[in-house]
Amino acid sequence: MISLGTPHKNATTKLMLLGSGELGKEVAIEAQRFGLEVIAVDRYPNAPAMQIAQRSHVITMTDPIALESIIRKENPNFIVPEVEAIATEVLLKLETEGYNIIPTAKSTFLTMNREGIRELASKELGIPTSRYFFASSPEELTKAANHLGFPCVIKPIMSSSGKGQKVIHSLEEIDESWNYAITNARGDAQKIIVEEFIEFDYEITLLTIRHSKGITYCPPIGHIQIDGDYRESWQPHPMSEKALNQAQIIAKQITDALGGKGLFGVEFFIKNESVIFSEISPRPHDTGLVTLISQDLSEFALHVRAILGFPIHEIHQFGPSASCAIVAEGTSEN
C-alpha cells in the first residue's frame, strides 16, 4: 500500500500529468481527493488541468531535453501521460532509472501512434483487426487504397480525438486525404495508416482496469463519432453475452501485453457476433465521460485508484446514461 503525504510537504506524493486537457483535469480532481500534489504539464498555458493543479509548466513535450529536464526537476512519484505527442524515448529511459510511468513506458510508446499498437495487436497477438497498410507518400497511399478497395479509411499514425481521419471513395480523393491527414497529425511523422472500411453494426469502448487484484471491466459504452470526433456516448450498450465475452478476452489479451496498472479505453467494431479490435488508449477515454454520471466510480476515479495500488470493487452502474459533446466553432481569447 502506498503512503500518501501532504502537498507541499517533504512527504508529499506527486503526480505529474503530461497533457492537461479536459480529461486530464478530471484525473487531477480525483488525484487531489487522495491528497496528491498534482503537477500539470502541457504545450500551452492555462490548460484545463493547470487551472486546478498545485503547479504547472508549459513545455514542448516532444522536445526530449525539455521533457527530461522538467521530470528530473519535479521528481514525481507518478508520471501520467494524457496525450500522444510526447518524447516517449525519454519515458523509456527514465523508467529504467526507477521513474513510475503510468501504465508503463512501453504502453505509452506503442500507443502513441497507430503503427505500434496495430502491429502488436495484429501480428504479435493475432487479434482480429481490419485489413490495413501504412503509407509514407501519396503514391503508397494510392497503391494501398487500390489493394483494399473503396471506400477505405485514412488516418494519421498519430492524432487525437479523430483529427485527420477521412473516409475516401475514389482515387480522386487521394491527394486531399493525404494532405488532410498529415496536416492534422500530431508530431512530424510523414506517415499514415490506410484501413479497410468495415460495415459494422455498432462500435463500443470497453473500459478495462488493471489493478492490484486483477482486471475489471466497465459495462460497454456505445458511441457516435462524426469525422472521427466523439459526439455522443451511452452506457450500457446492449450486446450479446457472446460478443461481450469475446471483447473482454481481447481487452485482457492486449492490456496484459502492455502491462502496468491503470485504466485503458479499448475500442471495438461489432459485426453480427464478430468482434474486431480498433484502437486502445492507455488512459481515460473521451467516450468514457458518460461514467461521470453512470457509475459509482467514474473512469477517472478508477484510473487514479488503480495507479495508487488500490483494489477495485464491483462497479455499480446506475442505469442507462448518456453524454453529448458540445462542439464549439471559431476561436476566442476568453
Write a short abstract of this structure.
The chain has helices at 22-33, 64-74, 88-96, 105-111, 114-124, 138-148, 174-183, 241-258, 291-294, 299-307, and strands spanning 14-18, 37-42, 55-58, 78-81, 132-135, 152-156, 166-168, 192-196, 202-211, 214-217, 221-226, 229-235, 262-271, 274-281, 321-324. The chain is of the alpha+beta class.
Structure overview:
This protein is of the alpha+beta class and 334 residues long. It has 3 domains: 14-101, Rossmann fold (3-Layer(aba) Sandwich), CATH 3.40.50.20; 131-196, Dna Ligase, domain 1 (2-Layer Sandwich), CATH 3.30.1490; 202-324, ATP-grasp fold, B domain (D-amino Acid Aminotransferase, Chain A, domain 1, 2-Layer Sandwich), CATH 3.30.470.20. It has helices at 22-33, 64-74, 88-96, 105-111, 114-124, 138-148, 174-183, 241-258, 291-294, 299-307, and strands at residues 14-18, 37-42, 55-58, 78-81, 132-135, 152-156, 166-168, 192-196, 202-211, 214-217, 221-226, 229-235, 262-271, 274-281, 321-324. Strands 9, 10, 11, 12, 13, 14 and 15 form a 7-stranded antiparallel β-sheet that branches. Strands 3-2-1-4 form a 4-stranded parallel β-sheet, with helices on both faces. Strand 11 and strand 12 (229-235) form a beta hairpin. Helix 1 (22-33) packs across helix 10 (299-307), helix 2 (64-74) packs across helix 3 and helix 3 (88-96) packs antiparallel against helix 4 (105-111). The longest helix is centred in the C-terminal third of the chain and has 18 residues, at 241-258. It is globular. The model has no long low-confidence stretch (mean pLDDT 94).
